[in-house]
Amino acid sequence: MKLALLGGGGFRVPLVYRTLMSDPSPHRVREVRLFDVDPVRLGAMAKILDSLAGGDPAAPAVVVCEDLADAVRGVDFIFSAIRVGGTAGRAQDERIAREVGILGQETTGFGGISYALRGLPVALDIARTIAEVNPEAWLINFTNPAGIITEATRGVLGDRVIGICDSPIGLARRVLSTLETAELVPAGTAGKVGIGGGEVRLDYIGLNHLGWLQGIQVAGRDVLPELLARPALIESFEEGRLFGADWIRTLGSVPNEYLHYYYYARETVLADREAQQTRGVFLEQQQGAFYSDAQAASPEEVARLWEQIRRDREETYMATNREAAGGVPRDESDLESGGYDRVALAIMHAIADDEPAQLILNVAGRGAAPFLPEDAVIEVPCLVDSRGARPLPVSDVPGHGRGLVQSVKQVERTVIRAAHEGSAELAIEALALHPLIDGVGTARRALALAQDTFGQLSYLR
C-alpha cells in the first residue's frame, strides 16, 4: 500500500511511521509520502523517519512532496492531520478566550470554532484535490476539530472519509486495564481494544470529544457495572480521578475526558486563567525550539530530542483540567501516546484486505443517534471492511446528554455553513449557541478579535 501524510511535518508523524514499521503484513505500507506547507518542519520529520528506518530495507520508503496533487495521486490512503495557523494559532485562540472570559481549548467551544473556521477552507480544498486526482483513495481524517472537518469533507468525498480520534480508545483501555489489575477481566484484555479485533465490544456514543462509554462486553458479559460498583476502583484511573467517582456513578457511564470542560466549566476557566501559561503557549515555545534545533542536528539527535519532547507533551496534557480537579497526577501508563496510529493502520488493513474490524470512528450516524440527521457525523463503534465503515448497534445517547449533543451538533453544522457561505453572522450564531460561550455579545467580541488576529478569517464577511 501507499500512504500520503498531509501535515507531514507534524509532531506526531513519527508515531505513525513507527507503527507502519512494526507491521509484518505482506500488504503493509511500503511508501509514505510527506506533504506540508512548512519546509522546516517537513525537513525535521524526514530526518526523524530516516533515523527510525535505520537503513532497514523493509522500512517504508519516504518521499517528500512539494505539491499536494503529487502527494495524493496514486496512493491508497491519505492521512490528514493539518493545523492551519500552527501552534501559534492555538496560543492566540487561548489569548482571545482569556480576554473575553471564556474557555480557549483548541477543539471545544470558542477555540474549536475558531480553529474550524481557519481549517475548513483548506480541508475542503484538500478534499476537492483528492476528488479530482484520486477519487478512489480513502481519506482518514485526524485534523481537528475532527467531527466538523470529517462532516464537511464528506460533502465532497462521501463515505470515503473516515474520522479518527484516540480519546475513546484510550478511555476504554484505561478502564479495562483497571479491571485487569483488579482481576475482574482476563489479563491482556485492554490490549485487544483499538487494534481491529472483535473480542471486546464497546458501547460508546457521542460526538468527537463529547461521548460516553456506557458498556464494555468481554466474552458476552458487560463488565462496566463491575467498575461502577467500586468507587475506589473508579478513582484509580485518569478519567475517574478527573470526574470523581460520585459523578461517574451519577451518570452511570464513563465520560470522555473532554466532557470535563462541560461538567466543570467554571473550575476549568478559573484554572486556565490562573495558569502561568496556556497549553498553546507552552507547545508553541517547545515546538519552536525543537524545529529550530532540528535543522543543524543529525537524524539520530533529532529523534532523541523528539522522544524527550513527546514525553513532556504527554506529561502536561490537560494540565489545567487536572489542576481544576484538585491536582490530579498522570500515571506512567497515561504517558503512552494515544494510539490513533494503530487505529489508522487497522482501518487500512480492514479496507484493503477486507478483514472486518471493529473500531470507534467518526462517521455518518445513519440512525445510531435517532434525534440527529442521518448524515450527521457522530463518534461510535463501527464495522470496517472493504466497503468502508458502518455504525454498529449501540445504546442511544444517554438521556442526560441528548440536549448537549443536539446543541453542539447544531453548532458544528452552523460552523460548516459559515465556512461554505463566508458568513460572519453564521459564525457568530455558532459561537453564541455553544454551551460554553455565554451569549451573543461575547460571541461578537470573540469573533471580532479572531478576525483582527487571523488573516485566514478574512473570508468571513
From TrEMBL:
The keyword NAD applies. Binds 1 NAD(+) per subunit. Pfam families: Glyco_hydro_4, Glyco_hydro_4C. It comes from the Bacteria. Keywords: Glycosidase, Hydrolase, Manganese, Metal-binding, NAD. PROSITE patterns: GLYCOSYL_HYDROL_F4 (PS01324). The keyword Kinase does not apply. Its cofactor is NAD(+). Residues 204-437 form the Glycosyl hydrolase family 4 C-terminal domain. PANTHER family: 6-PHOSPHO-BETA-GLUCOSIDASE, 6-PHOSPHO-BETA-GLUCOSIDASE-RELATED. Belongs to the glycosyl hydrolase 4 family. This is 6-phospho-beta-glucosidase. It comes from Brachybacterium hainanense. The lineage of its organism: Bacteria, Bacillati, Actinomycetota, Actinomycetes, Micrococcales.
